[in-house]
Each structure stands twice: as structure tokens, then as C-alpha cells.
Design a protein that fits this description.
heterotrimer; A mainly beta; B alpha+beta; C mainly alpha; A: mainly beta; Rossmann fold; Neuraminidase; 2 domains; 4-stranded antiparallel sheet; 5 helices; 42% strand; C: mainly alpha; 2 helices
Chain lengths: 445, 158, 51
């Protein structure tokens, strides 16, 4: 800020301008994460124990999840707890802002919790340390076993208040867990909280499973399974674990996604070697053919309003990205750069389509507007693909394979995420190797 | 004059033999020509002289002359063994996106199947499955490995 | 500040105010205040987008 004022005054001296509106174009700046102090939540001494929940440690457990979430955004710098002067209960009542300013905090999070009568009651506040005032004050009640989600919901509320964007912390990621040697991989469907915790395996690994995607309510998953050596699209109920095949197709179905209203599955069906896009209504079981072309049409993805579909086709000779109306009419190619394009996926904000691009032996994750303009390649690697959007349309999760040896030894597959501005590329924590990630919508809606 | 002509003929024969053996050497070392694998590694045999697989160029599902030759022999073997059924397994290399590779591998296996049908083999005896890039036979990251992975393999079913 | 996306402008304003407060005390020129008291700041970070 000071620099700007100095520059302005110099500017004025040089030109000796008579009164007119001065305009300053600010096009660059330093990205300094906002220093934020997350005080451990005060645990009300009247709290009971609840099952296997570590009540006494809960205040610190929750605040460290919040800190970890903030640190992962690259936008916040959670300050070291050892430097905090005020105790959690007092800070929550009335922070001594000078104390917090001393450790350079610009924002402060405080709170308290009580476990009683099998319920967890949470209160938290966000304070603007420079302005000496409260920014948010919220309270809610839930079951104690939901304590992780409490931390994620608090993170979302604060994130939204400070950035203006909806958060993405109270979400899960479904992916394919991979183990074993490269030529005999064991693949299972796995689901975890977005921070890498709470991993659960949904299939046993007896048959090959690929490309799982959530439905809009995050209760169902659609994916490709090679059960009984017949590759078909399946539906899995996350709660019950029950799997069922989608439709009664006489050949391979694959590349499935849900429609934004959750009523249909859109996918590819390969007949006599030719792959076209079809939909199936989950209630009526009515199947509709969407593309009818002798080329390979696959990887369909709906726009969030359900009116358009983006997909991958080689009808022009090589893999490119197209859009069309949801009834299959008005097909238009939108990728025109050098190289091949695949895995198009429409942002939940409707503004961008993310994709994988292959050019000059390298793989890129990129975004473009839905008319094909403004193509930006965010990250380059020897091998990576399959971006999936965070529910606020600001991040992409994808996977990357690396081999340490030319003969394929040291093979690993990991999940990575990146902001759509191209910043904050980071590896996600998973219990095993992982591929084919898909991000849920916000769990609390 | 006759002597010169003989020498000339001799030279021509010598040169062409040398050229031919150079070609043969190339094939033996398994180096891909024009991206399609032309070597003999990874190949298994359904019967004496009947190779079990055909190979493809990057992003393509067209059959080469060598592929047609292999499939012709497979058709002949199937005609002689009328009780045998097969499944054609299509594969792709790791240098493409996953879903497109599933479709491309399916197309490759179907190309081989269609060719077998032209030799009068009943379609009921031949099924097809695509594995995309999920089951590489060579896990290295070299053009040679990738060319060995772009294949359609004929497997006896029980 | 009367444009669509009011929420973002509020956030931006808060962020700017935070920055100013932290920069206190500001050293500004003693003269010519009339000339620079109204400044229009155009934020356009598209140059910083990667790719």
C-alpha cells in the first residue's frame, strides 16, 4: 500500500497534473497468504464422554483440521499455536486484539463446544483483528461422531466470509485405489474426506473398477466394472453397498456420469466397435441415443443447467472436444489447438470446461470457456489426466503417474489438485496409490 | 563383355541379399517400423505357426498386411477346430486418456473380429472385450513398450 | 460499487481496509491533497493467471 502512494506522488510531481480523475491500473501483486490465528476450541468442562470420541482433545482436533484446510488453500497462513497468548475460553468471549496483532494475525477464529445428552453443540466466531470486531458468530448442534464435518463446515463458513467464494471443505472424494505391480494392478473403489481422512473401501478388488462419479446428492456412485468379465456401467449405493448394473446393454458401456438433476446416467455404449453416447433414465429405464456417428464418442459431461453436453470425439480424425444440446443436436467442435484433447468436464459454475491435452509427448490439465476460447494450460507432466471440479468451481483434482525407472519400476499413481488460476498445485493424501478421482458436492446443502 | 555382365549380375545379387538380411536383422531386433510393432517378443502361439496377436499404430485401429496374415492363419485354425471358441482382447498404450482408450481398444478387437468373419467363421464363436490400457504386457515407458501394448490378442475360451 | 457481484466488492473493500489499517501510519505527501484525494483503482489481475 505504501509503495502505491509513493509511486502516485512521484507521478504527480513529474506531470504536474491539473485536477482530473487519476486512474491507477493494478495488474500484479505479491501473493502473501493471510495470517490467521485458529485458537483451539474451548471444551466446556461439563461435557460428557461419547463413545470413542476423545472429548477432552476435541477442541484441538477440530482447530487443527480447520488449520490444515486453510493451509491447503495457499491463501491463508495459520499461525503457530505456541505463540498464542490468550486462552481459548477468554479469547472466545472477548479477544484482546492487541495480543493477536502482536503475532501479526489479521483474522482470528475462536469457539467453544459442549458434549451433553449425546449431542455436540458448537459455537465459533471469526474476528477481524485489524478492525477490532466480530465478523461471524455461528452456533449449531450435531451428533458427536460428526466432529470432523464440524471442522469442515466451520472452515467453509470462514472461507466464504473471507473470500466471497463458497467453500469446498465439507466434501468427499471418490477414487480408484490401486495396489500391486503395474501389469497386475488391483483396483478398488475408495471414498475419503477431501483432506485424506476417513478412507473407506467400497469394493473388494476382485474385479477391475474404473472412473467412479458421484450423483448430485452424493449417495450414489456410477462407475465401470468388469464384474464377470463383462465391462458395464454400474450403480453403487454408498450407504448399503448394493451394486446394480445400469440397463441391459448387449455390449460394453463405459464413461458414465449423472445428469445434474440426478435422474439420468449418460455414458458411452460400444456396438460393433463403434462407441456412441446414450442416456438412461433411472426411473423409467428409458434409453435414449444421443450421438449417431461412426466415430468414437465418449467422456460426456452435462453443463450444470442440464441443457448442454460436452464430449470427446475423434470424428475430425483425432480426439477433440465438442459440445451439443442435450438432445444431441447442434454439435460444435470447441478445441482447436495443437495436439489431442480428452476428458472434458463442465464446471459446476457453468463458465469453464476442464480437459486433458496431449501435445509433444506431454500431458496437460487445462481449462477453456465453453465456446472454446481462453484456453489455459495449468500444469504439464509426463503423464496425468482426468480433472474433476471442486463444487465451487475453483479447483481441479486429477491424477498423475510417475515411474522412477525406464522399465516401469517405481510406478506410482497419486491424486493432485490445482487452483484454476494455476497456483497452489499440491499432492493429495491417500492411503494407497490412486487414480480417477471425482469430487462430491458440498455435503451440507 | 559377358564377364562384365556376370559381375554386374553378381553385384546386384550380392547387394540385394545384403539389403534383405539387413531388413531381416531389423525385424529380429523387434524395432517398430512406422509405429506398429513388427517384432516377435510377447507373441504366443495358438498352434504351430499361428500367432495369437496383431498390433496397431498409435491412435489407429486399422489392420496391417502382417495382421491380416496372422488373422488368416487364425481363421484357418478355427475352421479346423470347429469346437473352439475365442475372445478377442483389445488393448491400448498408456499414452492416451483412459476412456478414449477403452473405446479404441474395443475398435481394435472388433477390426480383428470383422476380418475373421470374412473367412466364414461364425460370429457366435468370437466374442470381444476391451481392456483399454489396463493390462499392458510391457510396463516400460518407451515407444517399443507402447507398440507392444497396442494389440488385439485372440484367447481360447473354455 | 454498484455492479453485479456486490458480495465480492464487499470482500474486496474489507481486504483493502485491512491492508490500509495494517499500513498505519501512512506517510503521505503534505501538499497537493486536492490532486490525489480521488483515485480510481482498477484491479485487473488477469496477467497473473497462469497458462
Amino acid at each position: 500500500m505504501k509503495k502505491i502512494f509513493y509511486i502516485l506522488t512521484l507521478f504527480l510531481f513529474k506531470f504536474n497534473i491539473a485536477y482530473s480523475l487519476i486512474e491507477v491500473d493494478i495488474t500484479r501483486g505479491n501473493l502473501d497468504p493471510l495470517p490467521i490465528a485458529v485458537s483451539p476450541l474451548h471444551v466446556d468442562p461439563q461435557s460428557n464422554n461419547y463413545q470413542d470420541v476423545k472429548t477432552k482433545e476435541l477442541g484441538e482436533l477440530i482447530s487443527s483440521i480447520v488449520e490444515k484446510n486453510f493451509r491447503s488453500t495457499g491463501l491463508f497462513n495459520p499461525l503457530n499455536k505456541d505463540a498464542f497468548v490468550q486462552k481459548p475460553d477468554i479469547a472466545h468471549l472477548k479477544p484482546r486484539f492487541e495480543d493477536w496483532r502482536l503475532i501479526t494475525a489479521q483474522a482470528l477464529v475462536t469457539g467453544k463446544l459442549l458434549i451433553k445428552d449425546e449431542k455436540l453443540k458448537i459455537e465459533f466466531r471469526l474476528w477481524d483483528v485489524a478492525a477490532n470486531k466480530e465478523m461471524i458468530a455461528l452456533a449449531f448442534t450435531t451428533t458427536p461422531s460428526n466432529w470432523r464435518r464440524v471442522a469442515h463446515i466451520i472452515s467453509d463458513k470462514i472461507y466464504e466470509r473471507l473470500t466471497g467464494e463458497t467453500g469446498y471443505f465439507d466434501t468427499r472424494i471418490i477414487y480408484v485405489s490401486e495396489t500391486g505391480p503395474r501389469t497386475q494392478r488391483i483396483k478398488k473403489l475408495a471414498i475419503m474426506d477431501q483432506d485424506g481422512e476417513n478412507t473407506k473401501y467400497l469394493t473388494l478388488g476382485n474385479e477391475l473398477v474404473l472412473t467412479p462419479r458421484f450423483n448430485p446428492t452424493n449417495q450414489l456412485v456410477t462407475y465401470l466394472s468388469y464384474f464377470r468379465n463383462l465391462p458395464r456401467v454400474y450403480l453403487l449405493d454408498i450407504e448399503t453397498g448394493i451394486q446394480e448394473v445400469v440397463g441391459n446393454f448387449p455390449g460394453m458401456t463405459f464413461a458414465p456420469r449423472f445428469s445434474p438433476d440426478g435422474k439420468k446416467i449418460i455414458m458411452s455404449f460400444a456396438e460393433d466397435g463403434n462407441s456412441d453416447i446414450y442416456t438412461m433414465d433411472l426411473e423409467s429405464r428409458l434409453v435414449e441415443r444421443i450421438t449417431e456417428d461412426s466415430s468414437i464418442d465418449t467422456s460426456p459431461s452435462y453443463s450444470p443447467d442440464g441443457k448442454y453436453i460436452t464430449f470427446n470425439s475423434d470424428r475430425s480424425g483425432l480426439q477433440q472436444i465438442y459440445i451439443m444440446k442435450s438432445d444431441g443436436s447442434g454439435v460444435k467442435r470447441i478445441s482447436f489447438g495443437d495436439g489431442l484433447y480428452g476428458t472434458p468436464v463442465w464446471s459446476p459454475r457453468g463458465d469453464l470446461i476442464a480437459f486433458t491435452k496431449v501435445r509433444g509427448g506431454k500431458f496437460y490439465i487445462g481449462v477453456m470457456r465453453s465456446d472454446g476460447s481462453g484456453e489455459r494450460l495449468l500444469t504439464e507432466n509426463f503423464y496425468q489426466e482426468a480433472p474433476s471440479w471442486s463444487p465451487n468451481g475453483r479447483l481441479l483434482v486429477f491424477y498423475r503417474e510417475t515411474k522412477s525407472g525406464k522399465k516401469g519400476e517405481g510406478f506410482t499413481a497419486r491424486l493432485w489438485s490445482i487452483d484454476i488460476t494455476g497456483y497452489n498445485e499440491r499432492e493429495l493424501k491417500t492411503e494407497t496409490d490412486a487414480s480417477d478421482p471425482s469430487w462430491s458436492s458440498l455435503l451440507s446443502k | 563383355m559377358k564377364f562384365n555382365k556376370n559381375i554386374k549380375n553378381l553385384l546386384i545379387i550380392l547387394v540385394s541379399t545384403l539389403a534383405l538380411s539387413a531388413c531381416a536383422a531389423g525385424k529380429k531386433s523387434g524395432v517398430s517400423t512406422g509405429d506398429v510393432y513388427t517384432g516377435s517378443d510377447t507373441i504366443q502361439y495358438l498352434a504351430s505357426g499361428v500367432k495369437d496377436r496383431v498390433f496397431f499404430a498409435t491412435n489407429k485401429s486399422a489392420l496391417t498386411t502382417a495382421s491380416r496374415d496372422t488373422l488368416r492363419k487364425q481363421a484357418s485354425w478355427m475352421r479346423k477346430n470347429k469346437k473352439l471358441n475365442v475372445v478377442l482382447e483389445g488393448h491400448g498404450d498408456e499414452r492416451g486418456t483412459r476412456e478414449y482408450n477403452l473405446a479404441l481398444a474395443e475398435k481394435r478387437a472388433n477390426a480383428a473380429r470383422d476380418y475373421l468373419l470374412t473367412y466364414g467363421i461364425s460370429g457366435k464363436r468370437i466374442s470381444v472385450i476391451s481392456y483399454g490400457k489396463e493390462k499392458p504386457v510391457n510396463s516400460a515407458s518407451t515407444p517399443l513398450a507402447w507398440s507392444q501394448n497396442r494389440r488385439s490378442v485372440t484367447v481360447k475360451t473354455k | 460499487m454498484n455492479r453485479p457481484g456486490q458480495k465480492f466488492y464487499k470482500i474486496l473493500a474489507e481486504s483493502a481496509l485491512r491492508a490500509v489499517r495494517i499500513c498505519q501510519p501512512l506517510r503521505v505527501p503534505q501538499t497537493g491533497y486536492e490532486k490525489w484525494k480521488d483515485i480510481q483503482l482498477n484491479f485487473n489481475p488477469t496477467e497473473m493467471l497462469k497458462g
